[in-house]
Amino acid sequence: MDDVDRQLLVLLQQDAAQSYAALGQAVGLSAGATHERVRKLRERGVIRRTAVEVDPAAIGRGVLAFVMVDSTKWVGDSGDRFAAIPEIQEAHVIAGSAAVLVKVRTATTEQLQDVLRRIYAIDGVSGTQATVVLETFFERPVTP
Amino acid sequence: MDDVDRQLLVLLQQDAAQSYAALGQAVGLSAGATHERVRKLRERGVIRRTAVEVDPAAIGRGVLAFVMVDSTKWVGDSGDRFAAIPEIQEAHVIAGSAAVLVKVRTATTEQLQDVLRRIYAIDGVSGTQATVVLETFFERPVTP
DNA sequence: ATTGAAAGCTTTTTACT
DNA sequence: AGTAAAAAGCTTTCAAT
Fold this sequence. Notes:
The structure is a homodimer.
Chain A: H1 3-14, H2 20-27, H3 31-43, E1 47-54, E2 63-71, H4 79-83, E3 88-94, E4 99-106, H5 109-120, E5 125-139
Antiparallel strand pairs in A: 2-4, 2-5, 3-4
Chain A binds a DNA duplex through helix 3.
């Protein structure tokens, strides 16, 4: 992982649809060498995948909320229970009490309420504290 | 936005590097028609961009935390102040008091502390409450 | 809006440095 | 690791439906 790799990652986070020739020109390498470096970044798992980024509002997910979930039992192995709720975009085990922090996207606040109901139905969950987002300043890739 | 468009979005969120021929086969369309649909999804802004997804730990961002930021003044136009801190991956204005919720990725907890210091330095910020993530269950695309 | 095919690039491989 | 060039494959455009 040198400077060129880091530069390539930044460029590919901005636009993964550009050609290796263009990428190579930007970092001062031939298309072939650029291709080989990107291939290795994938192989080593630094690049996990290439994906399109979708506007949440355009697909009926205009409401964003973060929900703190409290539990009376150990939550370390209940990831699947959260994954089973499709409106949950992220779920993290957090420090403090037995707790999980989830990021939820729904079409309406009514649907958000329904997601909270389904979270409550998870075994051991003793409480939720939802925080609704009014405006997203930015969401951006993590730069190296 | 019909069912085929939604299917295409799901497939492209999983792997945007596949060919239009493969995509078309999956949804029962020719490569040309698939290309045209994807082009329109881009044009309409449903697809924002194509990007690689990078493993945060591999680029020295193994520590993840969510930080609630309280402020004594209106925060609606201080997005740039948060954007100026590169370790902040997301920043959202949240309901409740004058507050912002940010997602931070750093290499170490010492660096996290330094980010908190820089957040405190933002005009009007009166307090922060950091929650460190112990384990990420999942982070996934929003499905239509 | 979709098809099928042609033209023009890109990726991917290979031989060489 | 990098370069350069060839082969294979893909994107993009276009006439037709």
